[in-house]
Specification:
By secondary structure, the chain is of the alpha+beta class. Helices cover 32% and strands 23% of the residues. The strands form 4 sheets. Strands 1, 2, 6, 7, 8, 9 and 19 form a 7-stranded mixed beta sheet that branches. Strands 16-15-12-13-14-11-17 form a 7-stranded antiparallel beta sheet. Helix 1 runs parallel beside helix 13, helix 2 packs antiparallel against helix 6 and helix 10 crosses helix 12. The radius of gyration is 25 Å and the shape is elongated.
Amino acid sequence: MSEAYQVVVIGAGAAGLVAAERAAARGRKTLLLEKNPRPGVKILMSGGTRCNLTQATDSRGIIAAYGKPGRFLHSALAQLSPQDLVALVEAEGVPTKVEATGKIFPVSNRAADVLAAFTNRLRRTSCELSLAEPVQEIARDVGFVLSTPKRSIVTEKLIITTGGRSYPKSGTTGDGYGWARQWGHTVVTPRPALAPLTTPAPWVKELQGVTIPDVALEIVEALAPGQRHKPLDRRRGSLLFTHFGLSGPVALDISRTVAAYASPSKLTLLCDFLPELRAASLDESLRQQSTVAGKRLAVSLVPEVIPRRLAETLLARVEISPERRAAELGRGERQRLVEAIKSLAIPLEGARGFEKAEVTAGGVSLDEVDSSTMQSKLVPNLYWAGEVLDLDGPIGGYNFQAAFSTGWLAGISV
């Protein structure tokens, strides 16, 4: 015999935890199903296990960061804004802090504390949390009939918060997409977002471990020398060279554009290692240094904010020996060095896959979900929330905010 509930939520991640808590707090007989042995696995992994839960901005700032798709979040953010989210976590005894990038973390730097804030809220309700119970099939009858290895479950309303496909070891293996297609929903092709970039250039990999705190990146289509298209994307932030290519916040951010491009290997990444300084000013500074301290080695002309290993690589890329004296550099060589510092071209292969992606781009089409309730426009009493939706934002807590807010809205709508 089937067990009956008024609301079932599938997936105990960021969106599912708040959706189930809100539904149960409103008196609905609620079941939260999670296939992992514990809830919130991705919360625990996020932010290097520190959990960047949101960004220090208001609802308008979150919406703007998503671009055109951000309009979908108006109603969700009206119910749970960044300020509301921070207040909720702090009310559970988890103080937060704002870092220089605007990212908000728990003061403890422990993602487990953030997860505890949400599980504690859930425990204060009558919601039943069932772990290690994957959903195998869902059928529609009067309501929904769910089959798990343990039982058959009937529910009036169903909220799917199964996430995307990023970090599949955390359990996010795209389960929701199959059910979406089963009921006629359009699933925008999932692709990795906020993923490190890969390059075929050996010299990039030789810089493994070098970090530059402030770099401006542009993505352009690879063209013949002297030709340039309008950049497909621009981002700025910290960059890390790795054994496979590039990582760090700015590389992860711009990877969303790379992953969406049909042939990523046809793209070129342009790096400006001194974004605060105009090329003409840098050229004049190098000229003056060459005149005043002509006996200095050419590598010493590169501003100190650029690590020595990178400085030597930049000289090598423009065929200038690091042992050359500054006074020996001609105007053409100096200009080539300026170009390397301000617009170094790195060929790309693409972005690393779902295994290394923090977020999934693509998912259930927003056109088929009522943004004022999170209910499906195609299937009555079916709700979608979190990363399973075709909604991905930049790095910095934006994606968690969207998950928490859409989950909250779904929970108060069932």
